[in-house]
Amino acid sequence: MARRNQHSREELRGLAIQAVRDLVVEHGLEKLSVRKVADRIGYTAGMLYHVFSNLDDLILNANADTLAQLLDAMTEPADRSARDQLHHMAAVYVAMAREQTALWKMVFMHQMQNAAEVPGWYLEKTAALFARVEHSMAQLAGGQSHEQIHLAARTLWGSVHGIAVLAADDKLVVAGDVNEQAMIESLLQHYLNSWAGE
């Protein structure tokens, strides 16, 4: 690794974000601190505060990488049907919850300290997920208003998220040890049939 004074600001930012991801996978979000991130990459905590405003800023930047990975994996060829796209997105979402649990939880469970507002740049990234769901759902029900599509996308994805939480926490045994992908298929089949008026 390069010596400290050989890292540019952007390189330091990348090192810190990767350290956040590694530490959360190894020890969990609750044990994360700016000092631990700094120690991992051989810098002082004070130096990191020149790049990130606080621990929340560090976490949100790490989460942005996870969201980008999630959205990239969700991308389906444009010629696939809207139903196929939604099924693929849901399967990817639940798979990440199961296979990259710590990073997935950091995205969806992190709470800003001192009730601080989530910055606009990050809200835009999370909105991209719902925009993709809305786009596919709009193709299944002509004539629905923007407000109806907005609500339906969040209702459907809230249900997918609930299954993902159960899968991530290995709590599906409470539901009779049902396979999470089978639950997703059942949810989407019935919800989308209703949504499309079938």
TrEMBL record:
Does Membrane count among this protein's keywords? no
Could you give a GO molecular-function term held by this entry? DNA-binding transcription factor activity
Where DNA binds (residue ranges)?
Answer: 33-52
Q: Which PROSITE patterns match?
A: HTH_TETR_2
Q: Name the InterPro entries on file.
A: Homeodomain-like_sf, HTH-type_TetR-like_transc_reg, HTH_TetR, MT1864/Rv1816-like_C, Tet_transcr_reg_TetR-rel_C_sf
Q: Which Pfam families match?
A: TetR_C_33, TetR_N
Q: Which controlled-vocabulary keywords does the entry list?
A: DNA-binding, Transcription, Transcription regulation
Q: Where is the HTH tetR-type domain?
A: 10-70
Q: Which domain of life is it from?
A: Bacteria
Q: Which PANTHER family match?
A: HTH-TYPE TRANSCRIPTIONAL REGULATOR BETI (PTHR30055:SF234), HTH-TYPE TRANSCRIPTIONAL REGULATOR RUTR (PTHR30055)
What is the recorded name of this protein? TetR family transcriptional regulator
Protein species of origin: Alcanivorax sediminis
